[in-house]
Amino acid sequence: xxxxxQIYINYGLLGLxxxxxxxxxxxxxxxxxxxxxxxxxxxxxxxxxxxxSVGSILGALFNYGLGLxxxxxxxxxxxxIKKSKKWLDKWGDLSVFITSFIPxxxxxxxxxAVGIFKMNIKDFVISMSLGKAIKYALLIYGTDFFLRxxxxx
Length: 153
What we know:
By secondary structure, the protein is mainly alpha-helical. The protein is 76% helix and 0% strand. It starts with a helix and ends with a helix.
């Protein structure tokens, strides 16, 4: 079996970006959060933050596109979309923000769902990007702080 983790690490920052993108898609579920200490210890925390956030955001947009493309294949679409639209109008932005913020949460499923229900792309990008950026800022800069202060790395 191929050890993808080792491949990602061997490719350095490109590997981080690829891991972040791929683990944010429905096809390669994974958790980039688990390897962040290795990357933060090896590379500049700012670069790790940017590449992780951008890769993860692009992966979520890919999933949104899959959902949007797949929405035409759903039966009883009018009923589902009507109910979903009502729910998205009320809670959509907040639910996207919260679920994209939670480490380890399978956000790829949410991204596909809001694509299927045709959530406004601008609202999706803003709430998802904010959630992911804040999550990775806390994880990366928290890890960097811990490594420098407590471990002297």
